[in-house]
Specification:
Elements: E1 4-10, E2 14-19, H1 24-29, E3 47-52, H2 59-64, H3 67-71, E4 74-76, E5 86-89, E6 112-118, E7 122-129, E8 135-142, H4 152-162, H5 165-186, E9 192-199, H6 201-207, H7 213-216, E10 228-230, H8 232-235, E11 244-247, H9 257-266, E12 275-280, E13 284-289, E14 294-299, H10 302-305, E15 320-327, E16 330-335, E17 343-344, H11 346-358, E18 374-377, E19 380-382, H12 384-407, E20 417-421, H13 422-427, H14 430-435, E21 446-450, H15 452-462, H16 465-474, E22 475-477, H17 486-493
Parallel strand pairs: 1-5, 6-9, 9-11, 12-20, 14-22, 15-17, 20-21
Antiparallel strand pairs: 1-2, 3-4, 3-5, 6-7, 7-8, 10-11, 12-13, 13-14, 15-16, 18-19
Helix pairs in contact: 9-15, 12-17
């Protein structure tokens, strides 16, 4: 009796046997397909094209997809199960996850340590020899929680429905498996004595089994922002002996321990000069300060910078337009992996708008001068609404930088070094960021900082936890919406500069 069906994925021709009745969502998630609404049939983010086989049209698809799309075979993967042999076309990609090989000073100690950067979208983990600081093994993965929602707010919504039980189970099991893989990969014989995890406030609360309800309503403050410790037995991790597993403290609101790690990684807390740190991931975090005083804040800027809420947006992955340049009045686009473009990622969005401004296709106020859209490459185009999304995102970040520096008696131009953290900060064109008014500093003062969260977590493996707790207490969290100047500054920062700096 046949209990399975053949599933073939295009492009690439990958095939596998799938049990009858298996949800396509579960199968495709392992291939990198995202389910932005958590698989509830409310968006079109998990579209797949049926090449052979049968996926009956459901009511959600009638509501969300056009008649032409349905005729062409497009379906919502989250609405279907394996009911027969199937061949579908889907977005194949490998999500680049930043590792870290930065050197730093440390006091050697016995045993092995594991540093983990628990991101909303991706996870990076490194096994470290604590005697010499060498990285013995690296593991990266998509966060398994993403099958229940792609962004922070969808995770909060999911956690509110069941108390966060399933999200907690998923991430604890995944991290435990990643730690096991690291040890196997390195052929490790020494014991793991310490694990340090960093992440944003929502990841902190979900992993630690805390309620996210306080993060869902005003004033959006964590229930328990401090450092929390666990044993391997509590988490169900296969680690023998006494192991200290710590999730480092949050800084307030949606600013988590990943930003605390970034502060340490960049040395901001020891600087005499005014220094800033920007992390433009799923959420946008801004830190400004020096050895005397440090302020931090979060802004709702991440979605546009990660390609979300953009008509043809996608993550920085295979098929994404990641760079756009105006050459002799023509737009020249670079696609990750080459070939035909499938969408536009955050760095490509910033480049496209910068190029559009230079070519007078976009006015400083954001109005698009070409109709109905600005063609980029292949079938991919920049829509007027996309420009507006970028204005909202860059306006929030720029306003946050203005507010924080003003509270320190300075201005953004007084920042002597600005560190761009995370994958987006690593790939964005600094010149394009200046052209759209996101950053107004000389290029020499803007530095891509890499995965500062992972770097900071590695440093924490060697350091006294009390010192990190003390630093977290030093950092002042600012709720931007409660600053009476924020909305005025936000509106002032939304237009693009009329000319390049």
């Amino acid at each position: 009796m046949n209990t399975g069906h053949k599933l073939k994925l295009q492009p690439g021709g990958r095939q596998q046997e799938v049990p009858a009745g298996a949800p396509l969502q579960d199968v495709l998630f392992t291939h990198g397909v995202e389910f932005p609404c958590g698989g509830r049939g409310r968006c079109k983010g998990c579209r797949v094209k049926m090449l052979s086989g049968d996926l009956p049209v459901g009511p959600e698809e009638i509501n969300l997809l056009t008649a032409a799309e349905l005729t062409d075979g497009w379906r919502l993967a989250c609405r279907h199960q394996m009911a027969g042999d199937l061949e579908i076309e889907l977005a194949q990609w490998e999500m680049p996850v930043l590792g870290d090989q930065s050197a730093f000073n440390f006091i050697p100690r016995a045993g092995l340590g594991v540093a983990i950067d628990l991101g909303t979208t991706t996870i990076a983990a490194q096994l470290v020899d604590l005697k010499n600081g060498n990285v013995l093994a690296v593991s990266t993965a998509l966060n398994a929680q993403a099958r229940l929602g792609a962004d922070i707010m969808s995770r909060i919504d999911c956690a509110l429905r069941d108390g966060g039980t399933e999200l907690c189970r998923l991430v604890r099991a995944q991290l435990g498996q990643m730690v096991k893989q690291l040890l196997e990969q390195a052929g490790a014989t020494e014991p793991v004595v310490r694990v340090v995890i960093v992440g944003n406030s929502v990841m902190h609360h979900i992993f630690c089994g805390l309620s996210v309800a306080p993060l869902a309503t005003h004033p959006f403050e964590p229930e328990h922002p401090g450092r929390l410790q666990f044993t391997a037995a509590q988490l169900g991790w296969p680690l023998p002996g006494p192991v200290s597993i710590e999730f480092l403290p949050c800084l307030g609101g949606f600013v988590g321990s990943d930003v605390l790690a970034g502060i340490v990684a960049t040395g901001l807390q020891e600087s005499r000069d005014l220094v800033a740190l920007l992390d433009l991931g799923t959420n946008g975090e801004v830190v400004v300060g020096n050895r005397d005083r440090i302020l931090c804040a979060s802004t709702a800027a991440g979605p546009a910078f990660e390609g979300a809420r953009i008509a043809m947006g996608m993550r920085a992955a295979t098929g994404a337009i990641c760079a756009v340049e105006a050459r002799a009045g023509v737009l020249d686009c670079r696609v990750i992996g080459g070939g035909e473009p499938r969408g536009l990622c955050g760095s490509g969005l910033v480049d496209a708008v910068a190029a559009g401004l230079d070519l007078k296709m976009i006015e400083p106020g954001g109005r698009m001068m070409v109709s109905p859209a600005m063609s980029l490459a292949g079938s991919i185009a920049l829509m007027p609404a996309d420009v507006r999304e970028l204005q909202l995102a860059k306006g929030a970040i720029a306003a946050g930088l203005c507010i924080l520096t003003a509270r320190l008696g300075a201005s953004p131009e007084d920042v002597q070094m600005l560190h761009l953290a995370g994958a987006f900060g690593n790939y964005i064109s600094r010149a394009s960021a200046r052209r759209i008014g996101l950053l107004r500093l000389p290029l020499s003062r803007i530095v891509p900082a890499g995965n500062t969260a992972l770097h900071g977590a590695k440093r924490a493996l060697f350091e006294d936890p009390a010192a990190w707790d003390a630093l977290a207490q030093r950092v002042e969290h600012v709720t931007l919406n409660e600053d009476p100047r924020f909305h005025d500054v936000y509106v002032e920062e939304m237009p693009f500069p009329a000319h390049a700096f």
